[in-house]
From TrEMBL:
The lineage of its organism: Eukaryota, Sar, Alveolata, Ciliophora, Intramacronucleata. Residues 1-30, 231-294 are annotated as: Disordered. It comes from Paramecium tetraurelia. This is Trichohyalin-plectin-homology domain-containing protein. Residues 10-30, 275-288 have a biased composition (Basic and acidic residues). It comes from the Eukaryota.
Amino acid sequence: MKTSPQSFQREMEETVWHTRKQRQETEKDIQLMKNRLKLLKRGDAQLSKRIDETKKKTQSMIDLKTNHHQQIEQKKLNQKNGEAQLKEKQQLNYDQKKQQEEQLEMIKKAMEQIKLEEYKKIKELSIRNAEMINKQKQDFMVKNREKREHIKEIMHKSKSNISLYWNEKLSHIQKENEKAKVENKKACEQNKAYQEKMEMEESYMMQKLMRSQEVQKKLAIKLEKAKNLPHDEFNQMIREEEENSNNLRVNKSAEIPRWLPTPEKDSAIIQDLDTEPKQDSDQQKNEDNQQQQE
């Protein structure tokens, strides 16, 4: 069975992905180890800090006791007024010294106890962190193993079914191509018919526009002429327009437009604006009537 270029490329990509996953697993293991070492170092730093603080407190107490002892010694030197006083001072010094020794012993035991407790806490924390890190690592390894097994199964199925896949894919492509050819042919026929319809509509609209422009031009000339007529001629023109309008109403060849303002009304009936014979005028009015109905 021949392997297609696409299948070969896919196998190469899966191999690269597998090696990349192995590298990522080793990098994650290293990161987990770094985190554990970081926690141990942090615990050691905290313990050292507390030990230093305890040492400082102890030294401060020792200095305080030393100063106190020096003061007592100075007082003892100043008091030399009798044997009883000297014995009393000696006893006092003995008691103070003994008290200092007891205090130092207590401080020493307290420091040892603090160190022991801190060590136990840090050890317990380290153990818990190590257990948590190991558990996370085990869970991560189990999940990766399951993923690798799943990927191997998918790769095996893909290799065994690659011929069937390509045959189905080629058959599907051929069907889609045939379907696209039929749809494109149908769309071309529809577009051609629609284009012819649009061309006819365009021709009709151009003719209609030319007729409308001519009517508008004649209306403007007629209106301008009416403005300059004397009153008698103006009324005569209105009567003629009304007679023509009545004829148009009888023939039902045009609607009444509003075009000529007069003192009596705001509209007049459109008629043939040319000075040509009445036959040409009726033909033009019929065309205008068809335009208005459209």
